[in-house]
Amino acid sequence: MSTEIISITEDCIGCGSCSNVCPRYIFDIINKKAVTNQNLFRCHDCGHCVAVCPENAIIQHRMIENSLDEDFPKKGKTLSYEQVLETIRQRRSIRYFSDKKVTKEQIKQLIDLGRYAPTGHNDRKVCYIIINDRKELEYLLDTMIELFKKLKKQLNSTFWNVLAILAGKKKFFDKAKKSLYRLESHIEHWEKGIDKVLHYSSTLILIHTDNETSSPIEDCNIAAQNIALGAPTLGLGATFIGYVQKSWENSKRIREIINLPENHTLYACLAVGYPKSTYRRLVPRPEPQVVYKI
After folding, report:
1. For the chain, which end, N or C, has fewer CB atoms within 10 Å of the first or last residue's CB respectively?
2. CATH topology of domain 94-294
3. Residues 230-257: pLDDT tens digits?
4. Rounded Cα distance, 289 and 294, in Å
5. What pTM was computed for the model?
6. Element (H, E) at 206
7. CA 187, CA 244: separation in Å to the nearest integer?
8. DSSP 19-87
9. What's the CATH architecture for 6-66?
């Protein structure tokens, strides 16, 4: 059976693997052959049917058209649990970068790490803005520090405290005041020429998506975590910078500088670069609280 989306060749043996893994229920097995059914229009190009077919009998035309530089190579060897755990445990949030420049090729490799992250309903709408110039980042930092000064003034203001109470925001306001020392520290350090916000990184990866996607926050942050975990394989390090995302939310000027497409929201930011410090040992973590309902 052939369609504009999926073709199934004569090599099909009717094993049912495609039907078993399809999240949109678009396959039936009839006369020991796979066929597509009335749900075909629901296909969201996840590629699970192609990946699982033992006879390579499924051709997903739309995926090929949208990825002309790729084929469907066979799956490689699976990493051991120990290898994955070691990779995760070695990840560090880098807070002191050298001035060595990240190359465009390395940035492309990092984006590929995010490219293969899962997205809700396979929307595949995660987008990236790369700022790869230290002078531009310092301009962004200057603007962020001015915002920090404004927020500091508000948090110390009796007027804003009363306004928060009247607006029913006292709990939120008090929580923000507990982090006031962080803003004060960033302001003080920046005025001395010390970057404690982006940690001297020369590259910032801003990850955003269309607000109409199924799970925009999760999509962007899973992609960001992929990048952060893979960066050390290129000799790089990364750290999440929540201050940029929060500043984008609270400052029209910063939104103008970053200039996202209309109807997009910034959900994750990574500072990337060459770590200036060498981490020589792993760090322990406390046991999490786990409840087994068996």
Report:
1. C
2. NADH Oxidase (3.40.109)
3. 999 999 999 999 999 999 999 999 999 9
4. 16
5. 0.85
6. strand 203-210
7. 15
8. HHH-TT--EEEETTEEEE-TTGGG-----HHHHH-TT--EEEHHHHHH-TT---PPP-PPPPHHHHHHH
9. 2-Layer Sandwich (3.30)
